[in-house]
Design brief:
Layout lengths: L1 E2 L19 E2 L13 E5 L5 E5 L7 E5 L7 E3 L5 E7 L7 E10 L5 E12 L1 E7 L6 E6 L9 E5 L7 E5 L4 E6 L5 E6 L3 E6 L4 E7 L6 E7 L5 E7 L5 E7 L7 E5 L1 E5 L5 E6 L3 E6 L5 E13 L2
Antiparallel strand pairs: 1-17, 2-5, 3-4, 3-25, 4-5, 6-7, 7-8, 8-9, 10-11, 11-12, 12-13, 14-15, 15-16, 16-17, 18-19, 19-20, 20-21, 22-23, 23-24, 24-25
Length: 302
């Protein structure tokens, strides 16, 4: 087990950045919503940060103009989304922002109350703590040159001070444990590590390095100690596996795909495959439903 020094900070760097070019989707007439449960990056039509019901209906773009690699995560109470987007013309690179998700009288979701949490030359993999009080994100040069780099914890508010920094490099995926005590971290493209939030200690759970396989997406079960992760083989085969968070656990193949996310009851996963088509698969039966929407990096609300 490796122990890394955790930096608890009181960093309050003001943001001297240009205004966001993003456009928040306005409320519109629609049938009453049942559950807009999945956020994702819409890649066709009105591109941007979007939501959809788990049956594929009600496709709605919440924020347009989100260029760059957008990743998102719902708050535990389902009332807000944290996401990343590039900052046009700004040397800081990438912003981490939060929007509230409100609903019209007819049940149509729309975005409101945009606030930028931080910026970095790189910022990726934002994940909301199950307790709702913090967001973890991998970032470099937070809020400008000389700023901290690594996995950082921040409150989901505008211009948030960084509360902790874990000096872990080459991170391309994060997932909180249900109790908020640990983070599953994918590093160097092929390793899965467990990070203890209280101490910064890390241990390697699994590595795909020997096979040349890369990891494309990771999520922790909402109620159990099972991860779901996407992999890409050297021959460009995309597969989804489950992986227990205990010693000796080995990946178990589920299906083809990448960027998986658990359903709230841990019975199904949503993922992308092929031409960025999105699917929902029930693990117990293997039943698979095409959502008939195209997008990347889905996140299923807790």
């Amino acid at each position: 087990m490796r122990r890394r020094r955790v930096r608890r900070l009181s960093l309050r760097s003001a943001l001297f950045l240009s205004g966001s070019a993003l456009t928040l989707g306005a409320a519109a007439s629609a049938q009453v919503a049942s559950d807009y449960a999945i956020s994702f990056v819409r890649t066709t039509g009105a591109t941007g940060l979007a939501v959809v019901r788990a049956d594929g209906s009600g496709l709605t773009t919440l924020v347009s103009g989100t260029s760059g690699s957008v990743e998102s995560c719902w708050s535990p109470d389902g009332q807000a989304i944290v996401f990343t987007h590039s900052v046009g013309g700004d040397p800081s690179g990438t912003a981490v922002a939060v929007i509230d998700v409100a609903y019209s009288r007819r049940g149509q979701p729309y975005a409101t109350n945009y606030r930028r949490v931080l910026t970095g030359s790189i910022a990726s993999s934002p994940v909301w703590s199950p307790l709702g009080d913090e967001v973890a994100v991998y970032a470099e040069e937070v809020n400008g040159p000389g700023g901290p780099s690594g996995i950082v914890l921040v409150a989901p508010v505008a211009n948030a001070p960084v509360s902790a920094v874990y000096p872990v490099n080459a991170v391309n995926g994060l997932a909180w444990s249900p109790d908020g005590d640990r983070l599953a971290v994918t590093t160097r493209g092929s390793d899965v590590e467990l990070l203890e939030v209280a101490t910064g200690s890390t241990s390697t759970l699994c590595s795909f390095a020997s096979s040349g396989t890369a990891i494309a997406g990771i999520d922790w079960g909402r109620t159990n100690d099972t991860l779901v992760l996407g992999t890409i083989s050297p021959t460009r085969e995309y597969e989804i596996h489950t992986l227990g968070v205990w010693p000796g656990a080995t990946p178990q193949l589920v299906c083809n795909g990448r960027f998986p996310t658990w359903s709230p009851d841990d019975a199904s996963v949503c993922y992308t495959y092929g031409n960025w088509s999105m699917y929902v698969r029930t693990l117990a039966t293997g039943a698979t439903k095409a959502l008939k929407v195209h997008g990347l990096r889905p996140n299923w609300r807790r």
